[in-house]
Design brief:
single chain, 2 domains, about 120 residues, mainly alpha, 434 Repressor (Amino-terminal Domain)
């Protein structure tokens, strides 16, 4: 096992290649331990160099609706009416505190994500 910190793109590519080779190693073997350590190193490098931005509240709602195979009509109970659902999802109206509470329960989204500020459509 020759593990080093990942400091460059070349190091990253080498680590990915080696991780692919040892990924399915049987548990308890040195190769399995190496895969665990390489996984942590690769994850940290990717977090630092390829950050994924958190979606804004409306994007998060849309993503979660897709995951749960929900349609706009399914959120009427949260927003109060079909037109209100449309206004929110089309960024013509901001979410209220009560809507955020309901969405947290209905879609299992974090309140911290839903209270993030976002721009309304012009």
């Amino acid at each position: 096992m020759n593990i080093r910190p990942i400091k460059s793109e070349a190091d990253y590519k080498l680590a990915l290649k080696r991780l692919e080779e040892v990924f399915d190693a049987p548990a308890g073997t040195p190769e399995s331990d190496e895969a665990d350590i390489l996984g942590v190193l690769v994850d940290e490098y990717e977090k630092k160099h390829f950050p994924i931005e958190t979606p804004d509240p409306i994007e998060a709602i849309r993503i979660r609706m897709e995951e749960l195979q929900l349609r706009q009509i399914d959120l009427v109970e949260v927003f109060g009416s079909k037109s209100r659902v449309s206004e929110i999802l089309n960024r013509k109206r901001k979410l209220t505190v009560e809507m955020i509470r309901q969405l947290t329960k209905r879609l299992n989204l974090s309140p911290e994500l839903l209270i993030t500020d976002y721009q309304l459509a012009s």
